[in-house]
Design goal:
Blueprint (H helix, E strand, L loop, with lengths): L1 E12 L2 E12 L3 E5 L6 H8 L7 E6 L2 E2 L5 H10 E4 L3 H4 L6 H12 L5 H14 L16 H13 L5 E5 L7 H18 L2 E6 L2 H7 L2 E6 L2 E7 H6 L4 H8 L6 H4 L1
Parallel strand pairs: 3-8, 3-9, 6-7, 7-8
Antiparallel strand pairs: 1-2, 1-4, 4-5, 9-10
Length: about 260
Amino acid sequence: MTLLDVRAVTKDFRGTRALRAVDLAVGEGETVGLVGESGSGKSTLLKCVLRLERPDSGEIRYDGIDVIRADRAQRRRFRREVQMVFQDPHASLNPRMTVEQLVSEGMLVHGLERSRAGRRDRVAELLSMVGLDPSDMGRRPGSFSGGQRQRIAIARALAVRPRLLVCDEPVSALDVSVQAQVINLLADMQAELGLAVLFIAHDLAVVGHLCTRIAVISRGEIVESGPREQVFGAPRHEYTRALLDAVPIPDPTIAR
C-alpha cells in the first residue's frame, strides 16, 4: 500500500522552477532513497512534503490525507505519524534540555503517555533500542559525540510511534567511521518496527546500503527511479551514471 504519494508537484521561486512535475511514492514499510547534488531540489521537495512550503501545483497525499489541504485533525495526525531525523544533530537538539526531556517531548505534545514514570520507562526503552545507556537520560546533548547525538535524534523521532521516517542527509555531518553505524541502526529500526523511510542524500553509496528503491533528482526533476539493483546495475540517465562514477572505490585494483 502506498503511504506517501507525491504527484506532479511543481514549485517556483521568483520565476525559477525548483520542482518540475515531481512524482514520488513511498510504500508502507518501504525504504526509498532520494538522491541528488546540492541545488537539485531535494530540500524543496522535502519542505513541500512536510507542509513547510506550498506547491504551486500537484498533489501530496499521506495515507489518504490531502497534505496540502488537511484540516486540523488531519494535520495533527500527520505531524505525529511523519517524523524527521535532521542532518545536523548538533543543531537539531536543544542543548539546554536533557535527553529525557528531548525524547519525551513528543509524547507530551501528542498525549501518548500521561505519567512521568511511563514516559521515563519509554525513554529508557528507546535509548536501549538505539544503542545508548538509559542511565544517561539525565545528561545533555553537549556531552555526547556526534554519532550518539544522532542516535538520540532517532530515539526522539521514534518516541511518538511514527509510520514514516523522513531522514534529511542524517549522516553527512558525521565522521565516515560513524556513518555506517547510523545507517545500520536505521536499517535495524526499519526492519524491527516496519517503518516506511524516505532517505534523502547526495551520496548514492550511502543510499545503496539502506534503500530498496531509489529516485534520482536533478534540476528539480526526477530523472530516474527504480529498484536499487536497476539503478546501480543499469542506470539509464547520464546524471545517474555521473553520480555512480563519483562513488569512491576502496581498492581500484581489485575493482578492475
